[in-house]
From TrEMBL:
Belongs to the eukaryotic-type N-acetylglucosamine kinase family. This is N-acetyl-D-glucosamine kinase. Coiled coil: none annotated. It comes from Saitozyma podzolica. It comes from the Eukaryota. GO terms for molecular function: N-acetylglucosamine kinase activity. Transmembrane segments: none annotated. Residues 15-334 form the ATPase BadF/BadG/BcrA/BcrD type domain.
Length: 340
């Protein structure tokens, strides 16, 4: 049974499910954030069971932190939320939606819900602007660039082009995974050529739980263990490698030349990720100057990394109408829900 807080006050829920964590944010009808909850990663490529578990866990935590009388039980058969937006990494194709939609419908009976890729959460800022064209870029554990348009200001945006977002196996350039991978490759290259390791190399080894670079492969080969299935092992391996990013960023900002080389390389990958969307022959008469660019993901929140990306775009001659950084997509998403 759901008590008076759900019946008397409309609640709105937005879930940002990524490769590192899942964030659930609840707001009131004015878009004021009431509570938030977090859980582990929910990338659909790790399996629908893990995705649903993270959605449930993050939502339960957000519900438990609501001010005032508590909702005694969730999931439940009574409608708790007026509108729900669930953005999940790896949920980009019709088969992905078909796989996950029944679970979302069961979790939110009676609610108006929307299931998208997590990249679509970055479209929320356009609702408060006069832009009709926008490009969103996620530089998180993974990466994805999307182009959107709307026929007028009263209609929602529609995805019209895509670049990247194919997962670690096929790239994910411009992401935390890519930066972590470059850091690991740097460590192996230095060790193979008997070059003295730099401080961030030791930090990477410590994060991966090894004392010798030659132990790297066994440390990452979790799929060889009977205790972990292959899908979960791949997700855990990607998370481990992406987790090395913070050591590389910190070292680069501290003046480490090798770390800065990696930072610049990954920033250039973001520019290359954008290229197909900017140089598309059907880009339209508005071009970049009539387009809103929205950056999201952990790397985008690093000012120095962002500056490198902007410098790369400037070299290409790309001039955007405006550039926004979304540090908390679930908050922007829930505010957009409440404004509908």
């Amino acid at each position: 049974m759901v008590n008076a807080i759900a019946r008397d006050m409309p609640l709105f829920l937005c879930i940002d499910g990524g490769g590192t964590k899942t964030v659930a944010v609840i707001s009131d009808a004015q878009g004021a954030v009431l509570s938030r909850g977090e859980a582990g990663p929910s990338n659909l490529t790790a399996g629908v069971k893990h995705t649903v578990a993270a959605v449930i866990s993050s939502t339960q935590e957000a519900i438990s932190r609501l001010p005032g009388p508590s909702i005694t039980s969730w999931p439940c058969s009574d409608p708790v939320f007026s509108r729900v937006w669930v953005g999940i990494a790896g949920c980009a194709r019709p088969p992905d939606h078909a796989l996950l939609s029944p679970f979302i419908a069961d979790l939110f009976p009676g609610s108006t819900w929307r299931l998208t890729n997590d990249g679509e959460l970055l479209t929320a800022p356009i609702t408060s602007t006069d832009y009709r064209v926008m490009v969103t870029v996620i530089c998180g554990t993974g990466s994805l660039a999307l182009r959107w348009s709307r026929p007028d200001l009263q209609n929602p945006v529609r995805q019209v082009a895509r670049s990247g977002g194919w997962g670690a196996l096929l790239g994910d350039e411009g992401s935390g995974w890519s930066m972590g991978k470059e850091g690991v490759k740097s460590l192996l290259t230095f060790a193979a050529n008997d070059r003295p390791l730099v401080p961030f190399h030791h930090e990477v080894m410590e994060r991966l739980g090894i004392n010798d670079p030659h132990d790297l492969y066994p440390a990452l080969a979790l799929s060889l263990s009977g205790d972990v299935d292959a899908t979960q092992a791949e997700a855990e391996r990607k998370k481990k490698i992406a987790g090395c990013t913070k050591h590389i960023v910190t070292a680069a900002l501290g003046g480490d030349g090798e770390a800065m080389r990696i930072l610049k390389k990954v920033a250039s990958e973001v520019v290359d990720l954008l290229r197909p969307l900017v140089e598309d022959p059907v880009w339209g008469a508005q071009g970049e100057e009539g387009t809103l660019l929205v950056l999201g993901g952990g790397l985008s929140s690093v000012k120095e990394f962002r500056q490198l990306v902007v410098q790369g775009m400037d070299k290409e001659g790309w001039k955007w109408g405006d550039v926004k950084v979304v540090s908390d997509p679930a908050v922007d998403g829930v505010k957009a829900l409440a404004s509908l």
